[in-house]
Amino acid sequence: MLLPLLIAAAQPAAAPDPVVIALVAGEGERKCLPDKSLCLDVPGDASDGGLVLTAPQTGKADDLALPYSRDGHQTLNLWPHLIALPSPEGAAADRRQYLMGIVIGTTAMYSGGGGNGSRLHLLRLDTTPSNTRLGDEVLDIVWDSSLMIRACFSEQDMKDRREACHDDYNFTGTLSAGPAEAGELPALTYRAVATAFPRTSRRSQDNSGQRLKAADLVHEKDPECSYERTLRYNPATSRYEMDRPAPECSDYTTP
Question: What ranges do the domains of the chain cover?
Fold first, then answer.
């Protein structure tokens, strides 16, 4: 469950700032740059989670190992965007650098309900016509979730809750790239939105037997777990870090 990101316009040749590029559909399950110069795929039948990169215009292909794997409860999917990075000073004209993402999802089932959640992992990707290299992970952040908890256990519960017999909790994250700053990688803006349905529901409480009003049957934003943070790359840790800690929102993010 991925919502659209705030996507900047395609980067002009002379523009110094990073941009988030929406990948377009390619052959099969591939996702490609708009000009089809580079395509990416994480084949669903690969248990080791390999990343396949192809250059349709030249026929070149690379199969790169990812530092993640699939199992019975974990899925790997390509984040359908690339963050194009400004070229380092003195870099070859045909060298391109990106941040690419892998969305790792987990699923849990329980009596009368279930849920899924995912985290976004960003890694460096460095390409030239003759060589492609996948670098280190620089970000691991909660991305999205959808949880459904049973809340009716009798006919009276159904009546009291106006037949809204499940509590729903949803969380979605988005990323946008800010202007290039002094440093190795650009600042990113992370926005999170968490909602509960009905609006009176709290996962940490027993919500069965509530007498709901018609006005309660809406998805209401949680003001504490709907937040914005600036992420900056810290060369000392080789990772992105938030400008201040995120709130504790496991009621929304943990299946």
Answer: 69-86+94-253
